[in-house]
Amino acid sequence: MKLHAVLLCLCFTSAAIAQKSGRTTVTQPPALIPLPQEVTWKTGKAFELAGCKIISIADSSLLPQAIALQQFIHQAGGKPVIRLKARQTSPSTIFLQLHGSATNAEAYLLSVSNPQISLTASAAHGLFNALQTLYQLAGSGNRIPPCTIRDWPAFTWRGYMIDVGRNYVSLPLLKEQIDVMARYKLNIFHFHATEDIAWRIASKRYPQLTAPENMIRDKGSYYSEADLKELIGYCRERFITLVPEIDMPGHSAAFTRALHTTMQSDTGLRIVKNLLEEFCDTYDLPYVHIGADEVKITNRDFIPAVTALLESRGRQVIGWQPGGNFNERTIRQLWMEEASHTVAGTATQFIDSRHLYLNHMDPLEAVTTIFNRQIGNKTRGDGSMLGATLCLWHDRKVNTETDLLQMNPVYPGMLAFAERTWRGGGTPGWVANLSDGDHPAFAAFEGRLLRHKALYFAGKIFPYAKQTGQLWSLYGPYNNNGNLTQSFEPETAAWSPETAKPAKTVTGGTVVLRHWWAPLIKGAIDHPVENSTWYATTSVWSDRDTIAPYWISFNNLSRSPATDSPPVDAWDTKGSRVWVNGLLVPPPTWQQAAQKGHSEIPLTDEGYEYRPAILIPLKKGLNTVCIKAPIGSFKGKDWQNPVKWMFTFCQAAGN
Asked: Whole-angstrom Cα distance, residue 128 to residue 132?
């Protein structure tokens, strides 16, 4: 049995919390994300936060952590005082201690008994991580169960990236996302701030870069020096490193509009160097990401020149791979599947972002695939594979900034990513469907995920619903000869799923029949063929006659390409259909039906996660669901309209 499965078993069988007369018995432990590396639950009395008298710190450098803990306990009704090096025998005390010489500054030891709690680490960052776990142990109450936790990250680089070059995001919304990052022990905030659409970092030397007339969207919206320093400080207080990306020499049309020259020209290179000098003079940051992907390099001296400048200023350079002509010292961030990161005998370091783009993912698939990922094809980090960055590239214009969270599974994806990058492990290859991954481990994680949604994301956007109990029987293939409207046996009254033999059974709220990145990513159909029709059936139990909200979809549009909206009076262009108890469920009345995709036309209701749920009448008892999923060619009409052969049918959730 895998280590994480063993730990999960220990969690649910050793010591959980049912409080009777102040003592604890084993029933169910608190939901922790990411799950610590080692957990031992114990019996005995819980530590009462409201009764905490003292927060003891090893030295004054830990005062910020002590104050944060003090404020948390105040919310539980306690009034502890902060003391320097309180006596080890002091009751009702929480000790924050620096001890040992562990090479991992993020590791920690947390021990809970009554009447004391001790949090020990070799550095303040480790104590910060210990506090995040302590807060989760409290849950929505104020009793901390007795336990011992030894914990450390499997990967040193655990990042989240947001593209503010294309769609400006206000400081309050950025800070909200950074707070969530900190709670789940992510430590890198990748800030993609320059793009073709707009340049959003203020420059005193070249103010025309942020002039409204040189922006295509959110004209005049950018980050001043004060804004960026505030954001850097906000991250630093939470032990998060801000990594700015100033994209060059590609993705730089805004630069060209403002300065009337391309970056790779002699004049452009001189300006870029001036900008980087100004940036390094202004901001104290260890990394600068220069992008350098998706561009034809016409000036072979460009990337070596800017790299040499940044290295001379003490900055570590990062670039996208595949990308420019980097030196061996440049950290490569992987965005496509290729084998450079497996080459032995190189000093180059890597960050994995392959198939970690939230803007391409259906919310239910996102949590599935991210949870099952094996970061960098390794179970834990090493000197070559540092870790990974989860990316939000919403290329398409949005109506409001919160659409970025509503149309992309940012928070549910972030929690799955935090679990995997902290714990390590994962399933080799690329998993799109629940049935192809570690289903028992995922089911346990989903329980914790939904518990966190209820506890910590009330009032926030969290597009995810339980899907582990949804079992589908697949029937096919039926040859439709290119006629996507053709009917087959499962649509006849004489056909019954009780007597028919399915070709396969799968689980999930979203089922990807053939992935749009096949054969790299496997779909539910083992040997898919064009011009075929498949059916999927399931049963839904209802305790009473009711009307229930459901997420239903057959093509989750990526938020990057300018994909067309669905046609009038149809779910999609493939002729997909769904019946519940034999009654056809009509598609929505699309706000932009048959709208040709355009990057400057925001999506409105094309995705189930950002449109009203479909209301489905259910009868008391079992209700039958039948999905029809035809396919013609696997090749879309153009790259903006890839063929996504998939379906979603799942009871909708709030947020």
From this structure: 7
Q: Closest Cα to residue 255, out of 199, 192, 200, 319?
A: 199
Length of the chain as a residue count: 655
Compute and round to an integer the Cα radius of gyration of the chain.
26
CA 359 vs. chain centroid, Å, equals 10
Dist CA 510 CA 647 (whole Å): 6
3-class SS of residue 448: helix
Q: Helix 439-456 and helix 363-372: axis angle, to 10°? A: 120
Partners of 547 in beta bridges: 617
Alpha-carbon separation of residue 435 from 7, 390, 510 (angstroms): 22, 23, 11
- Give the C-alpha separation, 346 to 326, whole Å: 13
Same CATH fold assignment for domains 3-151 and 165-429: no
Instruction: Give the list of residues 6+ apart from residue 321 with CB closer than 8 angstroms, or none.
Output: 293, 332, 333, 334, 335, 338, 340, 341, 350
Q: Taking the domain 3-151, which CATH number applies?
A: 3.30.379.10
SS3 assignment, position 450: helix
Q: Which amino acid is at 457?
A: F
Whether the pTM exceeds 0.90: the reply is: yes
Q: Domain residues of the chain, as ranges?
A: 3-151, 165-429, 471-651
Query: CA 158, CA 423: separation in Å to the nearest integer?
Result: 11
pLDDT profile of the chain (655 residues), mean per 10: 33 35 56 98 94 94 96 95 90 92 88 94 97 95 94 98 98 98 98 98 98 98 98 98 98 98 98 98 98 95 98 98 95 83 74 97 97 97 96 98 98 98 96 96 98 96 96 98 97 90 97 95 96 98 97 96 97 98 97 97 98 97 97 96 97 81
Name the residue among 207, 329, 230 with its Cα closest to residue 283.
230
What is the topology classification, in CATH, of domain 165-429?
Answer: TIM Barrel (3.20.20)
- At 8, give phi and psi (nearest 5°): -60, -40
Amino acid at 188: I
Q: Walk across the sheet containing 546-553 and list its strands.
A: 510-514, 645-651, 546-553, 614-618
